[in-house]
Structures are given as C-alpha cells and as structure tokens.
Amino acid sequence: QVQLVESGGGLVQPGGSLRLSCAASGIVISINVMGWYRQAPGKQRELVAAITSGGNTNYADSEKGRFTISRDNAKNTVYLQMNDLKPEDTAVYYCKANGTFWRSYSAQAFNSWGRGTQVTVSS
Fold it and tell me: What letters, b where the CB count within 10 A reaches 16 and e where it falls short, cover 41-69?
C-alpha cells in the first residue's frame, strides 16, 4: 500500500505562516493528483487545494492568495504553504493522493489518505 505522512502542523498566531508537507511511501509508480483537505470540529472535511502531476492547481475560494500548493514529483511529496493564517483556518489538515504502485508484481491503483496534522491558529 501507499502511505501518506503529513508533517508541519502546529500552533501559530493569527497572521502567521506554516508549511505542511506530505510524503508518499511505498513502491510508487506514479501519482496523479495530490491534495490537501481540512476538517474543523463539527464540520465536514473540505478541499483546501489540489495539484496534478503536471502542476495544474485548484484552490478553495477562501484560500486563494493565502495558500500555495506545490509538489516535488521526484520525492513524491506535496507541500502547502499557508500565509496570513486566520483562526478559522484551525483544523486537522489531511493529505490525499491517487495513482499507481507496485504490489504482487503488478501495477495497482491507490487512493490514500494521511492521518492528518493539527493546525491551530490562536493568539
């Protein structure tokens, strides 16, 4: 299986910045789309940003201009640079990716979620 491991969360003051990272491990052949989602207490999980293998990006309207998603295909890693953070950005941030990997001598599809990293914006 392909596992996704997030890092970079923490406590930050309003107006501050954080950079999240998510690395995929396993015998990965290719990753199509990598994305970040978040879930605040009592709310549904929502898309924050996504990026294709070719670099095309998609952002939720509330994050445009503040967040930047990028990826390093050689490292199977996706990043989320978050600037001008607001208290409403407080949530658990999850990484998601889909693609193909080697298993039992054949290529198989995967669609994996990370376990999440907590981001808290508070003074």
Answer: eeeeeeebbbbeeeeeeebeeebeeebbb
Residue bearing tokens 């290719």: 30
- Specify the pLDDT at position 63: 78
Which residues, other chains included, contact 97 with Cβ-Cβ below 8 Å and sequence gap of 6+? Answer: 2, 4, 22, 24, 31, 32, 33, 34, 35, 78, 110, 111, 112
Asked if 28 and 99 count as a contact pair (C-beta separation under 8 A), the reply is yes
Q: What does the alpha-carbon distance between residue 7 and residue 83 come to, in Å, rounded to a whole number?
A: 16
**In this predicted model, what pLDDT tens digit does every residue of 95-122 receive, in sequence order?**
999 999 998 889 999 999 999 999 999 9
Q: Tokens for 73, please give them.
A: 């295909």
Instruction: Report the chain's mean pLDDT, rounded to a whole number.
Output: 95
Residue type, 69: I
